[in-house]
Every structure is written in structure tokens, then in C-alpha cells.
Amino acid sequence: MGEIPKHIWENDNFLKKLKSAVEVERMSLDERLAYELSLSVERDWYACMEYRYEEGKQEGVEQGKLEGKLEGLYQTAINMKKRGIDLQTIVDCTGLTLEEVQKL
């Protein structure tokens, strides 16, 4: 790789992979084992982070749905109050507490 200008092989994915393969082939057995172990650790870490990201994303979606439903209930209660519907009926229809309805 020394004969190919650095700016060419650094920007070419195939040449990058070829360079990496050559470097791995030149390693001693101990170096190669250490290298493979580091790759394994990195892949495990990445898999854990990917799992946590997806888990967090799902939790965010679920939280957003709950907040949206609650906002819808509040808006329904507000509309019912504007129409003069008694508070206990609003509580019964929305599932909100009397205190929550009174605050709206």
C-alpha cells in the first residue's frame, strides 16, 4: 500500500478492506488473537448499544402514545365543560379524576 498514494486508498472502500486484510495476515498468532478478541468485544458492545437504542425508541413511542391519549382525554373534557356537561358525567366518560377535570 506504500506505492499507492494515501489519499486514494483512504477514500476507496475496497482498497481499505484489502489493506486491512493484508495487515491482519502480517500479524503474529498472538497479535491476531488479540485483534480478533478486540473485534468480538467491539461487535458485542455495538449489539448491546443497538438493542438499547431500539428498546429506548420503543419506550419513547409507547410514552408518546400514552401522552397523546391523555391529551385527547383532556381536550374532550375541556370541550364537554364548554358545553355545560356536569363534572361527574365528564369524569365517568373520560376516566379522569374529578380534580383533573376541575383544573381544566
Could you tell me the number of beta strands?
0
Largest sheet: none
Number of helices: 5
SSE sequence, one letter per element: HHHHH
Oligomer: single chain
Number of domains: 1
Helical fraction = over 70%
Distance from N terminus to C terminus (CA atoms, Å) equals 71 Å
Gross morphology: rod-shaped
Q: Mean pLDDT, rounded to whole units?
A: 86
Low-confidence stretches: none
Structure description:
Helix content is 82%, strand content 0%. The longest helix is centred in the middle third of the chain and has 54 residues, at 29-82. The termini are far apart. The radius of gyration is 30 Å and the shape is rod-shaped. The chain has one domain. The protein has 5 helices and no strands. With 104 residues, it is an all-alpha fold.
Descriptive terms for the model:
single chain; 104 residues; mainly alpha; 0% strand
Q: Gist?
A:
82% of the residues lie in helices and 0% in strands. With 104 residues, the chain is an all-alpha fold.
